[in-house]
Amino acid sequence: MNSTADTGGIRCENLTFRYMETSKYKVVDHADFEIGEGKVTVLTGPSGCGKSTLLYLMAGIYPQNAGIVDEGRVTIDGREMGGLYPHERARIAGMMFQNPDLQFCMDTVNGELAFCLENMGGDPAKMDEAIHEALAFCEIEHLKERAFHTLSGGEKQKVMLACAVLIRPKWLLLDEPFANIDPASARVLVEKLGRLHRERGVGIVAVDHQLAPWLPIMEEAVLLGEGARVRRRGITPGNLPEFRETFEEMGVAFPGQAYRENRKNGAPEDTVLAVRGLCAGYGGKEVLSGLDADFYRGKVHAVTGASGSGKSTLFSILCRIVPYGGSIRLEGEELKRIRKKAMAHRLGFVFQNPQDQFVAQSVYAEMEVSLKQAYEGEELETKIREYLKEIGLWRYRRMSPFMLSQGQQRRLAVAALLAYDCKVLVCDEPTYAQNARSLKSVMKLMMDRVEQKGLTLIFSTHDRELARDYADVIYTLADGKLERRELI
After folding, report:
1. CB 299 within 8 A of CB 267
2. Do 459 and 301 contact (CB within 8 A), yes or no?
3. E-strand spans in 19-110?
4. How many CA atoms lie within 13 Å of 355's alpha carbon, on the beta-carbon side?
């Protein structure tokens, strides 16, 4: 390992970490590398290789709040983050979580920003001005009084950035920050991060499965393998093509890479889900306004749209979480009138945050809950093994679902719902936090059900290539309405 003075930079020295004392599985296994002071670095690699865990160790969240460091240490500017108080850590390294909902403590945007300043000992007389400047920097002044439950995933990410702008850390650590943001919003966020780097000297370390959004500001990408060990580094926007073969071998997305050939599945025929005049909103603000759409048996439907356009609201309505006006008919029957118990085998829903739907204490048991309705005994055990091997989670079968990476959790959530053999599957960002190989695995699992059993698949995405390569029908949500269109 190259020598770096203890006064600057991030150093992982022979770092080994596991979540449970009784577990032999090392999430981070002798990780050994350094990041130069003030650099913009992207950590990428296969889903579940330990990238996010490594970021939590850098932030000092682990092992102070979970897990065990067996060997080595991680330091930022020569200080071991795990031994510092939270307010001390915050000045050195700010963290933007993969799941924004885990980060917020207050109910509203303004309340959260004020809470951040109070914890850092900010001057109360200057609080309003500081909050205004942070919101303006992120271009989200209009969200100041909004409650978090009314925000989209992308809007929540921008609020987290505003919190970081307020606290002014020397380093900013980001975990999949663009996963719930449309491409235009991602470009805006990158521009803001670039400004923080240039104007304030903020060092940036991001975990991401997609390098393309980072290319305007990225100084180096580090490709990690199992155990968060370095497989390749020194990857820059200028020499990226030289590493294409390595990315493909490891199942990591390479910028511009297609997922599969476009589907050609004939004209839609049988309408399974019909939406007419759908209206909904929060706090007097209308989000969906007279929305009409048809979803067809045995077809794949992609719903795209800018962050905050209402995709998650639409999907929450289909899941009967959010009240609505208008009509939604499932196989001719009004959705409001269908008993909840009767919905299990008719319409399944994968949440944007899969943790919200887990009910068991292990990965194995989660699949068992879904499959035991149709199988028992040795056949049940065989089916559980088949499903978990298909999505690459068999080796994690004894782990809690809550200890998996976000990408692994999403694969488990999709597989568990497909095991119910529902007729309509609604997925909010099903490929979020997936590397290329895992993405294809999740999509294949769903596509097989579409083609073999006539499943109606509806998924939201900000990934234009994903929509183009997999969908029969593409809807774009804007101004409260769905417009059927092809992506260019």
Report:
1. no
2. yes
3. 28-35, 40-44, 68-76, 79-80, 93-96
4. 12
- Work out the percent of the chain whose per-residue pLDDT is above 90: 48
Q: What backbone phi and psi angles, to 5 degrees, belong to 18?
A: -135, 155
Element (H, E) at 272: strand 271-282
Q: How far is CA 294 from CA 264, 279, 316, 341, 457, in A?
A: 19, 16, 17, 24, 12
Determine what percent of the chain is predicted with pLDDT higher than 70: 96
Which residues have a Cβ under 8 Å from the Cβ of 136 and sit 6 or more positions away?
none
Nearest to 100 by CA among 143, 36, 70: 143
At 465, the amino acid letter reads E
Mean predicted lDDT score pLDDT of the chain: 87
Q: Which residues lie across from 29 on neighbouring strands?
A: none
Write the pLDDT tens digit of every residue in 366-408: 999 989 878 899 999 999 999 999 888 998 899 899 888 877 8
Residue 172 near residue 196 (C-beta atoms within 8 A): yes
